[in-house]
Write a structure and sequence with these properties.
Layout (H helix, E strand, L loop, with lengths): L1 H13 L10 E5 L5 E2 L5 E6 L9 E6 L11 E2 L5 E5 L6 E10 L5 E10 L5
Parallel strand pairs: 2-8
Antiparallel strand pairs: 1-3, 3-6, 4-7, 5-6, 7-8
């Protein structure tokens, strides 16, 4: 009986438990800090963990603070990718602001910039 009890304790102590982690960006389009020559039709961020669509926020603003997304954000069926369509962008600097809640309940947020080079629309 002692062997079984000891084995049970060891198994309980070493059993894998679900990891609780925040969702962080794994890839962005346009890329963080990039200078692009063609205006994107949408901005998207792929996260390293599934996110809740109900709490996902994504917006794009120009250097004057004017919102440039043309509709609300959407989470793809993969539950990892958040995207938003944008208005026709003019050359300039843009800030992408995001906020998500991972399916484990943890909230993360952040922002990054990209530049649309002159002469492209």
């Amino acid at each position: 009986m002692l062997v079984l009890t000891g084995a049970t304790i060891v198994a309980t102590m070493t059993a894998s438990r679900p990891a609780r982690a925040h969702a962080f960006p794994a890839a962005e389009e346009p890329l963080v800090g990039s200078t692009i020559s063609t205006a994107p039709k949408q901005v998207s961020i792929k996260f390293d963990a599934p996110i809740e669509s109900l709490f996902a926020q994504l917006e794009v603003v120009d250097s004057s603070g004017n919102q440039q997304d043309s509709a609300g954000p959407a989470v793809d069926a993969d539950q990892h990718t958040l995207s938003v369509p944008v208005k026709p962008l003019k050359p300039g600097d843009y800030t992408v602001k995001w906020s998500v809640v991972a399916q484990d309940g943890h909230r993360t947020e952040g922002s990054y910039t990209f530049t649309l080079a002159g002469g492209a629309q």
